[in-house]
Amino acid sequence: MPEGLNAARVLMSDSLGFHIIFVMMSLTLPIMVLWFEAMAIRRKDKKLLGVAKFWSKLMTLIVVTGVLSGTIIALQMSLVWPGILQFGGEVIGLPFMFETYFFLIEAIFLGLYMTTWDRVKPWLHWFFGAMVFLGATGSAFVITSVNGWMNLPTGFDIVDGQFANVDVIGAMFSLTTAVTFFHSMPGYYVAAGLLLAGAYAVRLFLTKKRDLDSSKHKLDYFIIQKIMIFVAIATVFSGITADITGKYLAEHEPTKLAALELHYETQDNAPFIYGGVSDGNGGISGPYIAIPSALSILACNSPDCVVEGLDATPVDEQPPLYIHTLFDIKLALVGVIVATVLLYFVLKKWRPSMLKNKLLLGVFGFGISIVGIVVVELGWMMTEIGRQPWAVRGYVTTEEAFTKTHDVTQFGYLFPLAYVVLFVLTVWAVRVLVKREKRTKGGVL
Predict the structure, then answer these.
(1) Which end of the chain has fewer CB atoms within 10 angstroms, the N or the C?
(2) Is residue 98 part of a domain?
(3) Could you tell me what percent of the chain has a pLDDT over 70?
(4) In what helix (H) or strand (E) does residue 239 lie, and over which residues does it extend?
């Protein structure tokens, strides 16, 4: 193993883990801003318009941070993992060009949106915001297509050791891209929505109990209610796409599914395993639950479905089996999210006074609101670690993609240092933004 390879893996995971937080916020905030601005226009409500204005400032700040953190990742890709594009740049280079175009759309219309508040007709201004959403979402799609291609390379043939019949459009709009994109987006919405609602819950938690019923905080409760509706819808779509993803993995990435489920032997009536860890000898140690035939039903809606096990893949091409534990943790946290959403609407209908309970506000604001972020992080960890030992599955191993001309241990520390600085500056900027909003006459905070 080349010196520094594991360090490079850690550095890349740190970078992606940091970047994805700002990605999910920059993809979700445009929707929330557009939604509240549309309500404000229809209702002619200045308070709702104030919420949209405040969120748009936060959105601009997050977009800037996301661009900077994404630039650092681009540097890492070229400096640390050049083997990926050296192999497949001819096939998968086009999405990087489209990513630039989508970013230009996002940046141009974000500038228009922020500088034309109250200066153009309301619905024209709203259109500018819609183009920000289009640019952000388009950028996410094309970058996701690169990751999808790494998981299931398509759009080319290898003839006499050379690329032939290259189909860059087919590679970009692959089944893997569609499945990954449409499963990850609702997850981002859930995570960002919970975080945003949690911020308002913290605000209410820090409010004196006698002031919770004051008219000053009616808007806070209204905002939380709307966000939770958004989260509930996104959670339903996330569940639907999770089922689709499971069926996709069973057919196209069976080794990853087998590792996630500690499914050792190819068989029908395959059980779904929750809990336990690999004992290193093809067995499971520790407490676990086996649901009969459930994995076969997940794979193709039939208990008679044959699900490929780890026995079909050479040991040196199997991913680390600890991703099963990551999957178990993710499932447990998803359960927490679903229970939270259900509890909110049950209380909203039958016990609305409980939504002002300090304990519930504190638990949600300081705890549950960040669960969605952890779920997204775990999801991407399973996606990337589950592809190992491949960088481009079936063609380029992670070791082969690693740089041959640099020692990452000499310059790699610069990446986490840059993220620490960026995180501190972002938190500071958000605090300044919030304090300024509180001081503004007629502000929403």
Answers:
(1) N
(2) yes
(3) 94
(4) helix 218-252
Q: In one letter, which amino acid is 433?
A: L
Tokens representing 249 are 């993995």
Looking at residue 1, its pLDDT comes to 58
Question: Residue 12's domain spans which residues?
Answer: 5-250+326-439
pLDDT in tens, 124-155: 999 999 999 999 999 999 889 988 888 988 88
User: Which residues have CB under 8 Å from 121's CB, separation 6+?
Assistant: none
Residue 166 has a pLDDT of: 82
Any idea what DSSP says for residue 322?
Answer: T
pTM of structure: 0.93
The token duo for 300 is 């193709």
Task: Please indicate, yes or no, if residue 311 is contained in any of the structural domains.
Answer: no
Q: How many Å apart are CA 59 and CA 30, to the nearest integer?
A: 7
The whole-chain average pLDDT of the chain stands at 87
Cα–Cα distance, 396 to 7 (Å, whole number): 19
216, part of any domain: yes
| AA letter at 109 | F
d(CA 96, CA 139): 9
Question: Taking a C-beta distance cutoff of 8 angstroms, is the pair 51, 219 a contact?
Answer: yes
Q: Helix H segments across 253-370?
A: 254-260, 294-300, 323-350, 358-366
Report which DSSP code applies to 279. Answer: -
Contact 192, 211 (CB under 8 A): no
Q: Sorting pLDDT into bands at 50, 70 and 90, what band is 29?
A: very high
Q: Residue 105 class from Cβ within 10 Å (0-12 exposed, 13-18 middle, 19+ buried)?
A: middle
| Among 137-146, 210-219, 252-261, the least confident range | 210-219
Q: What share of the chain is helix, strand, coil (3-state, %, to 5)?
A: 75, 5, 20
Task: Report DSSP letters for 255-282, one per residue.
Answer: HHHHHHTT--S-BSSPPEEEEEEE-SSS
The answer to whether residue 2 scores a pLDDT higher than 70 is: no
- The total of structural domains in the chain comes to 1
Length reported for the chain:
445
| Percentage of the residues of the chain whose pLDDT score is greater than 90 | 42
Q: Tell whether 305 is covered by a domain.
A: no
d(CA 382, CA 384): 6
